[in-house]
Write a structure and sequence with these properties.
Elements: E1 3-5, E2 8-10, E3 17-20, E4 26-28, E5 31-33, E6 40-43, E7 50-52, E8 55-57, E9 64-67, E10 73-75, E11 78-80, E12 85-90, E13 96-98, E14 101-103, E15 107-112, E16 117-119, E17 122-124, E18 131-133, E19 141-143, E20 146-148, E21 155-157, E22 168-170, E23 173-175, E24 182-183
Parallel strand pairs: 1-4, 2-5, 3-6, 4-7, 5-8, 6-9, 7-10, 8-11, 9-12, 10-13, 11-14, 12-15, 13-16, 14-17, 15-18, 16-19, 17-20, 18-21, 19-22, 20-23, 21-24
Amino acid sequence: ANTLADNTVVRGGGLGVGLERSDGNLVANNHISGTSDNGIEVADDSDDNRIEGNWVDDAGDTGIMVAGSARNHVIGNTAQHMSDSGIGLNDADESVVTGNTVRFNSDGMQVDANRSTISGNIATANTGAGLEFGSDAVANLVVSNTASSNAKEGIVLSGQAPAGEANVLERNQVHANGGDGIFA
């Protein structure tokens, strides 16, 4: 139940901000740039955290990574100029990712999570796909996102969901991407 707010982290040798085995925290309105690893990382059973209103620029890996943690909210952040994706969910089930802007990254957003809501995000001008869902990502609600001007596909769904666990895509907008608009 910590609050990490209104901090500036510039050119660190590792993570900008990291949560590990830490629940119920607020990470808000921080400016992180030039780190050699992830800008913000929520990992190792760090559940029920809120990552909101942060600006992450030029991190050595992913801008905001949620891994091995559940029920986190990633809201209204900007992640740009990452060597990897702007936002990544890896085994981050039941998360809410909404209102974020991911641009000028390797990929906009990479999702390997289940039963999560991905809504109202903008993925633009990434050198890979705008939003990419891995082969193990099932039962997600993907609604009202915009994927435009990405070098590859706008939205990619990989793999095959078991019966009754399909991802649902509704009211997304994809335009001017280098590959397919929506590829499943």
